[in-house]
Amino acid sequence: PSAIGATLMFVASFIVIGGLKILTSRLLDDRKVVTLGLAVIAGLGHDALLTKVDSIPFFLDAAFSTSVSVTVIVAILLNALFRLGSRKKMTHTVILDGDWVEDVNRLVWRLGHSWSARPEVVARLEHATNELIDTIYGHNLISGEPSVQISVLFDEYHCQLTLEYQGEGFNLPEHRPEPEDLLENPDAVSDLAGYLVRRLADSVKLERRQKGVRVIMVFHE
Description:
Distance between the termini: 43 Å
Structural class: alpha+beta
Shape: elongated
Number of strands: 5
Number of helices: 9
Radius of gyration: 25 Å
Order of helices and strands: HHHHHEHHEEHHEE
Strand content: 15-25%
Strand order of the largest sheet: 1-2-3-5-4
Helix content: 40-55%
């Protein structure tokens, strides 16, 4: 019996620490904080609730017999409930005025919390988005109203950012321009910015269309 108890404590410690590592490695919004909090409270209060109930129907006895099962059931139900109205894809128009950097950063991190993404992935997305918009806006590639349309699609394996604007395209070279080219060729500065954009994402594709330019950036989890 002593050996069995020690084994159970050893396994339980790994399970608890593993669960805490998963929770702390993800961004959480208010919905997910409430889900986790109520699930833990339901599990901790399992024994106290059972003392108040004289009998449990047979078909519910297995589901509510342990605190672990109660915690899991509450978490699943609340997660399904709070996912109503949440979207894995978002489209937003950014006006390129003096506050566009703050607007983009706030938008990216709000999405990261609602999607429970890893902070490293959101930081990469933020950096790449700022660099891409700065390349487009800083090199005067936009014609007409200074604005871009951002569409972000996220799942557990990758994040895809699509940015569309009216204006000229730019190159995405695989190799960094030489220092001599930066001094002699005016287009080399734009090529350097395109090279940095390519380096910040796992894959980048630029499409020149009749109504403008579309840039697609993919980030893997």
